[in-house]
Model the fold of this input.
Amino acid sequence: MSFRYITQSNTGLKRSENEDALGVFEIDGGMLVVVCDGLGGNKAGDVASKLAVKTIAARFKEAVEKEILERIKDAILEANRTVLEESNKDFDMKGMATTVEALFLKDDHAYWGHVGDSRIYYFKKSKLKQLSKDHSLVQKLVDEGYLTLKEAEHHPNKNIIMRALGDNVSVEVDLSKLKISSSDYGKFFLCSDGVTTVVNDSELEELLSGNDFDQISDELSNLVEERGAPDNYSFVILTRDK
Done:
């Protein structure tokens, strides 16, 4: 099975360093995609995100005896341990952490693990669906009925997340899977919050309706930068090749 994809990772217009990291890896006849958004300053976020991507890919490839969702969970937990260990070795790295989206596509299924407020979307039949759910303060307030979705879009505490790799010795990983129609595969879109803080879901839906990945990537990058690109922004668009 072959896949078609495009990746982008940019510093944006306000930050001096890019603390996002991503990777796309062919493993066991499928495709593993990892997107991480590092937290922590003094380049520590950059270290955390790159370390997480590298660790997840390596551990997922090794853990062939496990069922796929367990492999994803195991790989993410290993990345959590690794980020914590490295942060404890160097004072400048203390407190570094990262979000993570890990998606594995194989045959007629998609499997994913999620921690933080980066996102995984699935686009099919002109409709965009968010598969991951933000681990953020604002999402918690929406869930509890204190904010509407509209109010959440512009809330001043939108960037506060409740869960990340490197925060604690133990971390809860959201896991799920989706059966995909082989005749109508759709597109997967993974991104850091540098995209979703300035581009809404309806705009993403319109952009992803095209089939030229280079054009979609260029138009989305231009839109993010037209709106000031206040954060690093990274994304992956992926589908199965026909």
